[in-house]
Amino acid sequence: MKYADEFRDKEIALGLARAIRSEADPQKSYRFMEFCGGHTHAISRYGLEDMLPGNVRMIHGPGCPVCVLPAGRIDMAIRLAERPEIILCVYGDLMRVPGSQGASLLKAKARGADIRMVYSTIDAIRIAEENPGREVVFFAIGFETTTPPTAVMIRLAEKKQLENISVFCNHVLTPPAMQGILNTPDVHGVEIDGFVGPAHVSTVIGTAPYEFCASDFGKPVVIAGFEPLDMMQAILMLVRQVNEHRHEVENQYSRAVNRDGNLRAKAEVSDIFELRDAFEWRGLGQLPDSGLRLKPAYAKYDAELRFGMTELRVDDNPACECGDILRGVKKPADCKLFGTLCTPETPMGSCMVSSEGACAAHWTYGRFRDHQLRRAS
Amino acid sequence: MKPLHRKLDIRNGCVDLSHGSGGRAMAQLISGLFHEAFGNEWLARGNDQSAFDVAAGRMVMTTDGYVVSPLFFPGGNIGSLAVHGTVNDIAMAGARPLYLSASFIIEEGFRFADLKIIAESMGEAARAAGVHIITGDTKVVERGKADGVFISTAGVGVVPYGLDLSAENARVGDRVLISGTLGDHGVAIMSKRQNLAFETEIVSDSASLNDLVADMVAAAGPGIRLMRDPTRGGLAATLNEIAQQSGLGFHLVEESIPVKPGVAAACELLGLDPLYVANEGKLVAIVAPEDAAAVLAAMRAHPLGRDAADIGEAIADDHHFVQMATSFGGGRIVDWLSGEQLPRIC
């Protein structure tokens, strides 16, 4: 497969693995958080952990938008979708995200709610045009990568003068989440030596928004693509920054990312969206300035206002360790719920929700290593 | 004087509730469309059942329902699929499939022209596989109560004494053979789904595998421990199922697993994994190590096994994991699918 296989070359990977092994100081431990679900997926899918020395450990971050969506927002969407006039359009991987008491959009659909899986916001526009007597609501979710398509949808709705489409906005921002993780006062301290920074998100916002990690918190950041070679190279760059006591924002993904990002996409987004004071993240709690909503000028497209949706809050299971896992303090297998009450079929916490969550990735691709360790020890 | 009957208007007509009512319209649909397409001596006798001689050996029986959407896809349609699927389930026992039944649930308003294409594909697929559709049933339901047409087929076949393919036969060290490229059917279907149409040259691999199986059985007989066709849930589901049933684990080598570049690209775009995508003309065989080379050679000599490959082995594993050495150099599990495989957003 052209333009993909080049970034999955085994020989180059082995070369990078050798470089990481020889440059990582055996006296030191290196704990790097890969922020994005896409990175977590690449690590698990290609078995990168097997190629790293034991003292270089990857911590799976909160960068899976589906995983961090709180149960209350799912409950709100289900309640909305149960209204007979509503057609709720959602991205596929939202269907299984658990709300409270085992509810999910998949189950609501089975009970008769009109919930349709779409692959782009343009599908929602088409559905609105085809169903003039119904109210079409797009369940908008995702980081800075998926926000511009939602903005485009609103622009199109305006242009086509569609009166029956609106957005249930759950867009969140990456830098405040990184800040939230770094700020968290924890008795164990934040055990992260550097970040593998977002790939697709950075194509939109650029590398500049991460500079606070380096300047205010002294943590190195390397923006990296989602291919396995991108990851290996970024890890080597992080090892070098740590060894040389540097903390900079470096850009491994220079084939797609620059410092300023996509100016046009950013302009569209800031034209239509504004910051919420705070937004709840599953596993991380309320984070200030971390979520978006529609500006008052676009209020008629805001489903929360249009349908008078009330905010619902659902507490995470108290035994769930997602918060500590997302901060790198604990590993998935440290959680009592992991693999017992909490599995991909019946997820309790955010990290088990989508295949990109830390726990689900470990369960689906990596749990054989727990048994190997147990056997070895 | 012979009463005058208007013939079925195949080109413009469609199924209505009278075609399921047991009256003349139903008789006309059955004889004019199905008997015509399936044409054999059993149906011609017009009984509610068909009798046949029992061959020597053990009888094998299976049944399957077909509810595919879209009904027509590159490389086949629900009719050919309904024959291939049931023939293959019988063949996976190492058996020779003999007779099928076919039961149709048709939605009111379904076009005769489409039904004719489907029935003719079934007839053609049955002839190609050397089986006969010897009994059937037709029901018509109101509009909205079925998705065009649902087909259910059952089949019987015969397997020689001494050949008893089953998961519990598998042993540590057995080889895992696959008859060809993975994921063709699932990707062909997805490329035609209404909300996901994309351009691809991939066609479904839907095919009857009984002829290929006969060659494999001739090459190794009971050296073949068991066979399965990796349909829904793909290779991953099939191997996990076998691991559970046999009490073993598997170790696969990703580089040796054949996937067409077009399928790999489509899966990449959609965020899917070809190991979990459905096949309708492929089989997995667990074969004793000493017979693996002979079986693989027999597979490769058959047109439906040209791309056959040895992709791994059975290992001792109390957890019954299916592990894989990735082509990148690391290791991972190939787990059961959780729910439906859904496209990812990031």
Q: In DSSP terms, counting alpha (H) and pi (I) runs of 4 or more, how many helices of chain A?
A: 16
Measured as a percent range, the helix fraction of chain B is 25-40%
Order of helices and strands of chain A: HEHEHHEHEHEHEHEHHEHEHEEEEHHHH
The chain-level structural class of chain B is alpha+beta
Average pLDDT of chain A, to the nearest integer? 91
**Estimated radius of gyration of chain A:** 21 Å
Number of helices of chain B: 9
Helix content of chain A: 25-40%
Please describe the topology of this protein.
The complex is a heterodimer of chains A (377) and B (346).
Chain A: H1 10-23, E1 30-36, H2 37-46, E2 56-63, H3 65-68, H4 71-81, E3 86-91, H5 105-110, E4 115-118, H6 121-130, E5 135-142, H7 147-159, E6 165-171, H8 174-183, E7 194-197, H9 200-205, H10 211-217, E8 221-223, H11 228-243, E9 249-251, H12 263-272, E10 273-275, E11 278-281, E12 285-288, E13 292-294, H13 303-306, H14 322-326, H15 358-366, H16 368-376
Parallel strand pairs in A: 1-2, 1-7, 3-4, 3-5, 5-6, 7-8, 8-9
Antiparallel strand pairs in A: 10-13, 11-12
Helix pairs in contact in A: 1-11, 2-15, 6-7, 7-12
Chain B: H1 24-38, H2 41-44, E1 58-66, E2 72-73, E3 76-77, H3 78-91, E4 96-107, H4 112-129, E5 132-141, E6 149-159, E7 175-178, H5 184-190, H6 210-220, E8 224-228, H7 234-246, E9 249-253, H8 261-270, E10 284-287, H9 292-300, E11 309-315, E12 322-325, E13 331-333
Parallel strand pairs in B: 4-5, 9-12
Antiparallel strand pairs in B: 1-6, 2-3, 4-6, 7-10, 7-11, 8-10, 9-11, 12-13
Helix pairs in contact in B: 1-4, 3-4, 6-9
Describe the structure in brief.
With 377 residues, chain A is α/β, with parallel strands linked by helices. Chain A has helices spanning 10-23, 37-46, 65-68, 71-81, 105-110, 121-130, 147-159, 174-183, 200-205, 211-217, 228-243, 263-272, 303-306, 322-326, 358-366, 368-376; strands at 30-36, 56-63, 86-91, 115-118, 135-142, 165-171, 194-197, 221-223, 249-251, 273-275, 278-281, 285-288, 292-294. In chain A, a hairpin with a 3-residue loop joins strand 11 and strand 12 (285-288).
